[in-house]
């Protein structure tokens, strides 16, 4: 027989007060960190208050995109024009085109490695497109979602040519410059456990230390090493003064990052990236997109461009943006191959024969069906 417990009314009152107080004090997570709240000005997390980021961006009329500003080819501020340029920057523009129809409707927020993920978590930026590696803990345990990989990278090690190092094992006990708050720190410890990491908060201070020979090697994603090598100052010997060693000792899939629990916003970001890949697969470019709009050739191209095929219905995937949003994206920044060739090829990272080639050419760049 179950016993029935009668709680005095005074205790009910105390319990009720406790519950109300607890609810009012719910701004702290279990780990003691504050839970961000939406302020409507980009400093909170709209997804946590039930207001989607799509509505926020549309109301604001501008996309806030977290980027790097010191990696040529990916995210860099042109010293002559003071404009943000690069592969990642073009994907910021692509999302602005998808949502707002305007490649210039972007506010770029330069972020250090330490600050980049908290900037998404707290709503400082709408999306992060800044050489950020997808890992299980970042994807599952930090309230973030990683979209389709835009660049498959791997960690390497760069040395001064004059030092004569030919393999990573030559630096087994050396001092290695690295960026703080990145996966490269842990990977370095795994690969060279007896080395001495020397961490820095950004690439510019790291490079200054490397020029001063405070470290024997410089480790990062190979794309970053190639970018920094391509722009290495002539006063320090120029690009030929550096050698990127052959070994790749990690997997670093890089791509856009959004706040978790806002599936509509994630889908827009994700399928914008996928759309540029599919456009390359189908031969749709910034130069011929209008021809394909007029004559889509096949049903998938028609669906992708949001036009009718042979008098049929116009396909709407339900993303919350117009069905023809990719017309603006492709016209404005091009397909994946155009974005790559414009930004990454010039820093010496050829695409052919690498994992960043299209899947039909032996790479990993692949679009799911657009249907």
Overview of the molecule:
With 371 residues, the chain is of the alpha/beta class. The chain has two domains: 36-153 and 252-285 and 321-371, D-Maltodextrin-Binding Protein, domain 2 (3-Layer(aba) Sandwich), CATH 3.40.190; 155-250, D-Maltodextrin-Binding Protein, domain 2. Helix content is 35%, strand content 15%. The chain contains 13 helices and 15 strands. It has helices spanning 9-24, 53-60, 87-100, 113-121, 136-141, 183-191, 203-211, 222-230, 263-281, 289-294, 299-305, 325-333, 336-343; strands spanning 63-67, 70-71, 75-77, 84-85, 106-110, 127-128, 144-146, 151-153, 155-160, 175-179, 196-200, 217-221, 242-244, 252-254, 257-259.
**Number of helix segments?**
13
The amount of helix comes to: 25-40%
**Percent of residues in β-strands:** 5-15%
Strand order of the largest sheet: 11-10-12-9-13
Q: Per CATH, which architecture of the largest domain?
A: 3-Layer(aba) Sandwich
Outline type: globular
| Low-confidence blocks of residues | 1-50
Number of domains: 2
| CATH top-level class of the largest domain | Alpha Beta
- The count of DSSP E runs of length 2 or more, i.e. the number of strands, is 15
Q: How many angstroms does the end-to-end distance come to?
A: 59 Å
Q: What is the rounded Rg? A: 24 Å
Largest sheet: 5 strands, mixed
Pairing-aware structural class of the strands and helices?
A: alpha/beta
How confident overall, as mean pLDDT? 87
CATH superfamily of the largest domain: Periplasmic binding protein-like II
């Amino acid at each position: 027989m179950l016993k029935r417990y009668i709680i005095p009314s005074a205790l009910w009152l105390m319990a009720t007060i406790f519950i109300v107080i607890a609810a009012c004090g719910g701004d702290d997570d279990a780990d003691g960190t504050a839970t961000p709240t939406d302020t409507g000005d980009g400093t909170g997390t709209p997804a946590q208050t039930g207001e989607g980021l799509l509505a926020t961006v549309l109301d604001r009329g501008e996309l806030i995109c977290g980027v790097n500003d010191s990696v040529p080819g990916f995210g860099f501020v042109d010293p002559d024009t003071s404009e943000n340029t690069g592969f990642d920057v073009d994907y910021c523009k692509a999302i602005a085109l998808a949502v707002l129809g305007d490649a210039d409707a972007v506010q770029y927020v330069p972020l250090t490695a330490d600050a980049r993920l908290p900037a998404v978590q707290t709503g400082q930026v709408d999306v992060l497109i800044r050489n950020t590696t997808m890992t299980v803990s970042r994807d599952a345990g930090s309230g973030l979602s990683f979209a389709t990989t835009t660049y498959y990278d791997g960690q390497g090690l760069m040395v001064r040519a004059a030092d004569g190092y030919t393999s990573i094992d030559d630096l087994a006990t050396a001092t290695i410059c690295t960026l703080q708050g990145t996966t490269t720190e842990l990977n370095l410890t795994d690969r060279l456990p007896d080395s001495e990491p020397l961490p820095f908060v950004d690439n510019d201070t790291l490079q200054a230390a490397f020029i001063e020979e405070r470290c024997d090697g410089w480790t990062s994603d190979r794309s970053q090493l190639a970018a920094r090598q391509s722009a290495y100052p002539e006063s320090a010997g120029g690009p030929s003064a550096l050698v990127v060693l052959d070994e790749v000792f990690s997997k670093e899939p890089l791509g856009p990052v959004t706040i978790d629990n806002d599936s509509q916003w994630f889908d827009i970001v994700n399928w914008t990236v996928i759309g540029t890949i599919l456009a390359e697969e189908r031969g749709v470019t910034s130069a011929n997109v209008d021809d394909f709009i007029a004559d889509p050739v096949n049903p998938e191209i028609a669906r992708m461009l949001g036009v009718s095929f042979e008098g049929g219905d116009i396909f709407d995937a339900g993303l919350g943006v117009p069905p023809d949003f990719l017309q603006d994206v492709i016209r404005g920044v091009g397909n994946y191959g155009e974005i790559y060739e414009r930004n990454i090829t010039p820093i010496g990272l050829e695409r052919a024969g690498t994992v960043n080639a299209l899947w039909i050419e032996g790479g990993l760049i692949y679009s799911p069906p657009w249907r």
